[in-house]
Records
---
Amino acid sequence: MEFSEFLDTYLVPTAITVAQIFAIIVPLLVAVAYLTYFERKVIASMQLRKGPNVVGPFGLLQPLADGAKLFIKETILPSGANKILFAMAPMLTFILSLIAWAVIPFDAGMVLADINVGILYLFAISSLGVYGVIMAGWASNSKYAFLGALRSAAQMVSYEVSIGFVIITVLLCVGSLNLSAIVEAQKTIWFAIPLLPMFIIFFVSALAETNRAPFDLPEGESELVAGYFVEYSSMTFALFFLGEYANMILMSGMTAVLFLGGWLPPMDIAPFNWIPGPIWFFIKISLVLFCFLWVRATFPRYRYDQLMRLGWKVFLPLSLAWVVITAGVLVAFDIVPTPLSG
Amino acid sequence: MVQAIAFYAFAFVTIAAGVMVVSSRNPVHSVLYLILAFFNAAGLFVLIGAEFIAMILVVVYVGAVAVLFLFVVMMLDINFVELRQGFMQYLPIGALLGLILLVELFFVIGIWSFLEDGSMLTAVIPVQNITNTHALGNVLYTKYVYLFQAAGLILLIAMIGAIVLTLRSRPGARKQKIADQLSRRSEDILDVVKVKEGEGV
């Protein structure tokens, strides 16, 4: 094979893909850093405090200071820990929270991998997130960490079921598993309006799936110290932290794609469609993230049996019924979307 | 070339992980190797263009089944020495099963490669231009709908069986009944008393 041919077939596409990956990951990590700042500011305002305001103007450099602090701390390996798994768990959590972004469409055609089964890929990756938690809990060889991991495993598996049904409902209305097609199908109306109950179920399940308040029992500090990452310090802790916040942004992105019309403007008229798609997507993600923080500042933590009851006895029957109702309505009014070819 | 490299990488890791599932001493490691094997099998499915099956493999086996495996294995108090004792005793049965599977594989591959019309037995890739999710749905819910329903019924019965086996009513236990709590009225439980000064209730 000629070198130029090799260059054209392999090296150049690889270089372009790597550049695209960096174009996604770098803004994502900046967003994660400033999400922590946003969270502290929002919760502070809700509690009539000021929040971070010392480091830099308006405390804007606080995330960088926190990062630097974590970076220079000592990494501690507990003597009874399973060393390899202990080190792998935070890496796994972090990697999983990043690779899911490969299929998220930021604008029409602006997506790293436009695969046919995009939504299933997202679902699969988000269901893998539990492994980082379980491995961390088990490998730490600590009671608190282990209990946190067990709680998290049961919780994430439970809420995945209803997330699955919500996704099926949306897919019934789209007729495709491709994320760009899901967004395009919301040109006339965002799915948040006809599928409002599903939207709410998805949002609450997303809270549970990301272990956020009021479902943050895996890290419930009042009984489990910090749950599964109690033995972690320094950068290993930072990786968990980054992964968790990146997952929050991812779940908000999923909510925006499935229910809030992704990159589409609310109405296709003059002042709205001047704003480019990625900005709309960013605004929608920020809005959902604000709700995440709002919920955290508002609701007390659930009891574990209440959490299980909500997942299995309320959300599961409700979402299952909506799948049947949606399918029935689509068939009865003969508006089943035709499969797109290709 | 890249496909071949990817295939051999996935295939090698699948087999190596499979060997480690059987041979690793710690059962938690075994389950984690099993997950690795599933994952690489999903990679192999992607390589032959069956992306739907690949994703379902990850969602169902890695995301749900293996989590429950891991959950149980982590909580078990396993005596490793005892676990090893039956090894030699069960070895012949295991070897026999492996041998049978190997012979069956040879039959399948032999039919494919030696018979003239053997290619009829291999999967026919649908020529129409649809995604394999649609292709699977078209076959599963039309041609095989009764088998599909039967599989669903079997799973349902298995689930009911599991619940019946583990359900026990504890008479003394206190349970929160949400419906009772919600149906309480303030008139039933509250008495508003006007208390005279200096007298008490």
---
Amino acid sequence: MKGILAKKLGMTQIFTEQGERVPVTVLEAGPCVVVRHKTIENDGYAAVQIGFGLKKESRLSKADLGQFQKAGVSAREHVCEIHEEELAAWPVGKEFGAADVFADAKFVCVSGVSKGRGFAGCIKRHNFTSGPRSHGTHNIREPGSQSAHTFPGRVFPGKKLPGHYGNKKVTVKNLVVVKVDNDRNLLYIKGAIPGPKNGIIVVRKS
Amino acid sequence: MTMNIESIQHENKREGLEAFRAGDTVTVNVKVVEGNKERIQPFKGVIIQKKNAGISATLTVRKMSGNVAVERIFPMHSPRIESIALERAGQVRQARIYYMRDLRGKAARIDERK
């Protein structure tokens, strides 16, 4: 699948010709640059490493800097690998944007790191229903019963309990591409996308 | 990389809508499709609410159609709205004049804003 790195700019709405309002997330997709080709002979798997967003060279480690110098491209803030044969034809150093990847795309898959919610209870984390707030109850936001008693005599693995929620890679599949702005590398995708504003997102053609 | 969501929203906005206020009488010219023809249908009434929400901003316009009150909520930046014209500037104290819903006839008059 062809893919690109993008920055989430935020959500807005756009109108169709018929006047319907469509909720969209706007992504700044590119310009990205091919940094390196990984091959089966060399690395054990085939992939294309792409970079996005400029970074000061003085802020890079020498190891990272060496990677960019070898490719002959200026230093990039974010790098990711895309497993795609079509991209393998693109030479190292080639710059590309949203139009090159998504010109004829109808649907995309989007991966990003979701917003961190810290240690969250069952209601937020697993959509449990809350208990009654009145009539002297104490189980307003409690997780409820864990398991039965003598049999099985234990709590089953994977029981939904409070814990850390969010700040985890989330992929949403088959989102509709509403518009591609070629000149400014903007991608308008219908609906919400994981992560905060200015979060870095991997967008793949589905 | 100086793109932000506000500037993208701003591109699709219609200009000159800031002037309208609650209490104003306006004519909203709406594009209506009938069969395969398109025509413009005016809707004249009093603004009872203006929701300022960037590109999603709306106007609630109320009019008396005979004996029946009609309220329509228009997305201000929608392409289906051909134009909005100010008929009469009204002087009211509230930003949202829902009390108009309880008033009829002479009581439902609004002073003109100077």
